[in-house]
């Protein structure tokens, strides 16, 4: 039995002990109150009516929500399962999937196991989770090109720029300054689209052409000069 199996076994044993302790304590309290002739309060009746699993789930919510980012977990209604969506947001590209229908207990466990994930409860009742990944999605690896759109903006395209399937616009380029500073073959390659195959190449292209980015103030001046 390895260390992970031992920890899992001890965790299960602790849950059983916690349940037994909670139940015994509750029964003892009821017995004492009954012997003294004291009625149970509404709050006590509600508490006693709840399953021990609800107490366990609440504890998991507290463990999975150490900060304000996971406060939405407390909005999950006990006993109500929800559809859970996962969106992987890459440096370049996104991928979405449905993880399935989960109980509040399972959702809390999922967020606890993945502390870097960010989640929210959608207006329709579904749970939406985002995972940030430093890398390229499969679509971006196979179809990602960086080039210029018709307005001179450095743009990420799905396929070569000539297909005009823009995915994301980064910034506007001072085309005249770029053409005077870079070799003609580099300019031609940019117009045809620079193929992106890994995150290092992606960042390198953005860094290279950021030297020719037009600042917002310069962009406004250029627009004002146009007839």
From TrEMBL:
Domain Bypass of forespore C C-terminal: 136-210
InterPro entries to which the protein is assigned, alphabetical: BofC_C (IPR015050), BofC_C_sf (IPR038117)
Presence of the UniProt keyword Membrane in the record: yes
Chain segments annotated as transmembrane: 20-38
Domain of life of the source: Bacteria
Keyword Lipid biosynthesis: no
Keywords: Membrane, Transmembrane, Transmembrane helix
Gene3D superfamilies registered for this protein in UniProt: Bypass-of-forespore C, C-terminal domain
Residues in the signal sequence: none
Identification of the protein by name: Bypass of forespore C C-terminal domain-containing protein
Native source species: Paenibacillus barengoltzii G22
